[in-house]
Amino acid sequence: MCSPKLEKLKAQLQTLVNRKRFLIVLTLSPDLANQYLLEDLCALLDVQFSLLNTYLNTATQILQEKQACREEFAEISNRHFRRLLEIEKQLQSEPDLEKQVKLMTLRKWTVHVYKAKVEKIR
Half-sphere exposure of 101 toward its Cβ, with a 13 Å CA cutoff? Predict the structure, then answer.
């Protein structure tokens, strides 16, 4: 038999909004969900252990993939931004008109490549 506090918590977790919020918290902190805790959580949520475990494993994997994409995006952004700054600096100090045209073409190409990479990551 469950304690009154546990019954109250179980009742709160039966509402869809609270259930989703609770699963989001679990998703963001899967390292807190060891075997014994998972068994208790399964009892609270009225779900099978294997189902909750699979959900948390999948969520962890997806979050790792998203983190890798985010890191790749940050690296690409920083690299292209620095390159654009270099090109702008060269443009400002370049007296030769022909070299200015080449630098403007390079700047345009760098922006195009950057946008293409960002779209690929998305």
Answer: 3
For residues 74 and 31, what is the distance between their CA atoms, to the nearest angstrom?
Answer: 26
Residue 121 CA, distance from chain mean position: 12
Q: How buried is residue 31: exposed, middle or buried, by Cβ count under 10 Å (0-12/13-18/19+)?
A: exposed
For the residues of 21-74, what is the DSSP string, one character each? HHHHHHHH-GGG--HHHHHHHHHHHT--HHHHHHHHHHHHHHHHHHHHHHHHHH
**pTM exceeding the 0.85 threshold for the entire prediction:** no
pLDDT digits (tens, 9 = 90+) for 89-102: 998 988 888 998 99
- Helix (H) / strand (E) containing 16: helix 16-28
pLDDT tens-digit profile of 67-91? 888 888 888 888 888 888 899 899 8
